[in-house]
Each structure stands twice: as structure tokens, then as C-alpha cells.
What does this fold into?
Amino acid sequence: MTNTTKTQPGGDVRLAGISKTYGSFTAVHPLDLTIPQGSFFALLGASGCGKTTTLRMIAGLEEPSGGTVHLGDQDVTALPPYKRPVNTVFQSYALFPHLDIFENVAFGLRRRGIKSVKKQVEEMLDLVQLGEQARKKPHQLSGGQQQRVAVARALINHPKVLLLDEPLGALDLKLRRQMQLELKRIQTEVGITFVHVTHDQEEAMTMADRVAVMNAGRVEQLGAPADLYENPQTTFVANFLGTSNLIQAEVDSRSGDDVVVRAAGDKLLLPASRCAVPAQAGGKVLVGVRPEKVGLTHADEAGSIPEGRNRITGRIGNSSFIGVSTQYVVDCAACPDFEVYAQNIDRDARLVPGADVVLHWNPAHTFGLDAAQDIDAGVAEGEAA
Amino acid sequence: MAFVNWFKRNLVVIAGLLTLAYLLLPNVIVTVFSFNKPNGRFNYEWQKFSTDAWKDPCGVAGLCGSLSLSLQIALWATLGATALGTAIAFALVRYRFRARGAINSLIFLPMAMPEVVMAASLLTLFLNMGAQLGFWTILIAHIMFCLSFVVTAVKARVMSMDPKLEQAAQDLYAGPFQTFVRVTLPIAAPGIAAGALLAFALSFDDFIITNFNAGSTVTFPMFVWGSAQRGTPVQINVVGTAMFVIAVLFVLASMAIGNRRNRRKA
It folds into this structure.
């Protein structure tokens, strides 16, 4: 691949107060979002959260009820889709069934009056490894190949932004993994801004530089994947991205940089910087910790746990062995279904359902959330995804 | 026992062949009798092989004139009904407007209405308007009754079309006109072609409505009917056979083209 596919500096995508309502239903609440140029940006959320509507407003296929869309310095809010320098990869691919692969990919170039398309189309087909299939019709290709045609057809136009609407949704798991890497490779190669809509949190986290988690027409949280995972700001994000153990607690006191909280008799430490709500003594807070951060020790060995770690006692309710790790569900006073993922390094044969255990973790891995929220928000959506 | 088993295994093929024979036998008779040399005016009994009628298809007064008129009317009616019907079909599928539901069901009325009733009512209408019966009244009537068939054929196609395809075209810099010409029309084409073929066939051999509204104009079906009162010239069979052969050649040609294209692509 030569540098010909490098796009001109396009600038950031800026959405300012953009919203969409259908009658009395609000699909997208007024939303401000800046997508940095050249980034791989994911809009993540369950179906119906407004992520696709947001994408379609950037493409111009949906007219916003309010707000503006800027590409770099250009206000494109009033432009029809065929005048916007963005291209879309549709969920169903939307390949033209009456045209062969070559003509599908050449479509955008031809519409802009470019006569000699052969070299560019062939280069693009090589980029997505479909050079051999140029004269086939879309229905003669496999799902993964069709998906690559859809990407090639959009990318050949060197858009300022490439919009991807659940592009991997129709593929089976193995192919999906492969295409995730492939898309990431292409994005790195061409340097175009990618905006990727998906309901698959793993997909968003592996591919994107930045992820906006959407819920009910609003952005819940925006950040780098690791940041979202380690520092969720809402229960929805905590539950939708991976699994979180959330414990209802009461703020006891402040101790240096930590907040001391009480949960069903246990005293836990929480870094003040990771607490999403102001910690006032007597205030309610949800204390969270990810299952893989937690150690599990049999009650008889409790003395061997280093000082300074958060501890909770409980009894193993269930355990399932899944190869690399064993997943335990522990019944604690503070949290009825506390999940622990333990790596299978030195398995303690006594850790079976019914055994009394001590759960312990580094206080630095604890996060605090506003207790006024629904503690289970995002659980069902996360499982469905 | 062996025969019973053979029969059981081939039942579907036998049933298929019998049905085909049932469908094709009338055409075979028409073809065979186009080579007859009848005694007298009626071509009902096989006498003797002859190619006289094929050598002189216009030998009967009025036949070729009526045939040419029927072809002209069928062509214009097809064009008119296909253009209007396609527009109606797109409007019904793509847009929400007042009376859409009513139009959706009313469009089927001409198909359901007994043809002879429609023919008589049309005549009443034309007479009240003081219209001169002839080519134009026939054409208007034909476009009217072909319309519902075209709408039905095109509508089915447009409904099964993914609206994302047109959005994709727009996304790829095709304006509304380009989108229609490059994407919508080619994808709807099979439906439109089916509607057009149906319209042509319906218009070409329509007798009842035409007979009521033709005045002194004579189309080919009217000519056949008229001459059947006084005898049946062999040339009628010649025209019938020729039409049948042309239609079969069309089908074979389109199949051959389709096959070659598929083989090249594969």
C-alpha cells in the first residue's frame, strides 16, 4: 500500500448539542461529543441506546432535531449525505446486488466523476485481500468477504471519517475476532478517523482508542477502554463493561487519601480520588471491585493475608472451572453474589461450594459510585451483548 | 411389482409431463393446423400438409392491418401502464400520504371487476363524454386495466428492496437522480419487466373491453372473432404460431444469456 490512501487532515468530528426525537420518544438527548482526528472511536451501548442514530446523524442519513455536526471547521449539519465527506459501512453491508465487486467499490469514485478508477479499485481490493473476486457478484461471496467489500467501498473515497454501523454483527465469533484485527490494521494503515458503533463491549475495548458508553440516549461515560474499565463512573458502565461487584456501604470517616466505609460490619478502604461522589460521613456509597482483582483464601488461612487489604468474609456458593480461571460466586453479608475470578495457578482443593472463605483485595482497586443509582443498571444489557 | 416401483419412483416426473402436455397440446394443435390446406372455409379437419398460409400470411383481407394495430396498441399501452404503474408502486411503498390505504385496495378493483361489466361502463363513460371511439379509447381502456397488474408486480419488488441500498448510494455521493438511475431502477427492473410483459400480453389479446370501445376499429382478437363467424382462415394459426415461437425464443435467449453470465462469473 502506498501513501495514496492517506487522507488529508480532516479535523475532528464535533457534535454540539445534537439530539433526535421521534414524536414523543427521544432517541438521543442533546449530546456534545468530540471525536479526535485519526482516532478509532467506539460508540458502545445496548440496542436502542441511540448509538446508531448518532452515527446516522454524522452520516447525514438522519436529520438531527437540534444541534450541529462539524467536520473540522465545516458545519455539515444542513448537507445531504451525498455532499458529506464521510462514508458508512452498513450493518447489512448494503452491497449493490446488481453490480459486481469491482463496480461496487468503484461506485463512489464514479459518482464523483473520476474516470480512471481501475488502479485505485485494484489497490483497494488488494488492501482487503479480494483482488481475485473483482468480477463476482456480492451474493457469491461469504459474509466475511462481503464485509470487506463494504469497507473497501467506503474507504476508497478517502473519507474524513469512516462510520461503521455494527459491521461485524452478522459474522460468527471466530471471523469476528479476525475482522477486528483486520479493521484495526486498516485503520492504522490509512489513518482515517473510524467511528464504530457496537453493542459488544469486548469488541469496543479491543479495537477502539476511545469509547463512549451510551445508555438511553445519553453518553454515560467517555474514555480510553482501560480507564472506563478501571474507573467506571456509573453503575451502568460498571455492569455493562465486564462484571463488577457492587457493595452498598456507608461512609465512616476519612483516613489520609482514603475513605473508610462500612458494609455489613466490614470496614473497607476506598481511594478518595476514585470515589465518584463526595464522601461525607454517614453518606451512602456503592463500593465496587472487579472480580479478577479479588483474592480468595480459605478461612483457616486468614492469618496469611497481608495487612492493609480490604477483607470480607463469606461462603462459596458456587464455582465453575473454565480453564484459565475458576469463577466463584461467594455469598457474603454485604453482597449476596460476590464474583471472584481466580487464576488457576495454585488451586486450593478446599475451595469448594460450602467452604468459608475470606475475600481480600488491594484498596487501590476499589471504586466508589453514587448510591442513588440502580445497582443493577446495565447488568441485563451486558449479558445480552 | 417392478412396474409399480418404477411408477412410484417416477410419479413426480409423470405428473409433470402430463401437466406440460395439458398446457402445450392446444399450442401444438394451433401449430399443426397452420400447415393445413382445408377444404372450404373452416380449418377444423386435417386435410393435407401445405405451407401456403406461411408463404402468404397477409393473404386474408384485414388480418395484417388488425395485427399491426393490436401490436401498436399493446406497445403504447405497455409503455403507459408501466410508467404510471411503476410510479404508483413506488409511491405506495415509499411514502405515507392520505388515502394511501384506500388506493392500495382500490388498485385491485379492475382485476376483480368482471371484464364485461367494466367494458360496458367504460363505453357509457366514453359516450357521455362524447369521445370518438377508436384507437384512443382502446388505448385508454387498456392502460387502465393493465395498470393494476403492473402496480402489483412492481410493488412486490420494491417492497423486498432494502432501503439501506439507496442510503448507501447517497452515502457514496450519488444525488437523488443518480441514486434512482444507478441503484433503485436496476434493482426494481425485474419487477418492472414482469409488469410490462404482463401488460403487453393482456393488452394484445384483450377482446371484451376492446370490442365494446373500439367503434369501427378492428384489432387482431376482434378480427379472429369476426372471421370465426364466417370461417377460419389458416393465417390465424400462422400468426398464433409465430407469436408462440417468438415468445419461446425470447425465453430461451434470456436463459442462455443468464447461463453464460453465471458461468463467466463463477
Observations:
- Chain A has a mean pLDDT of 89.
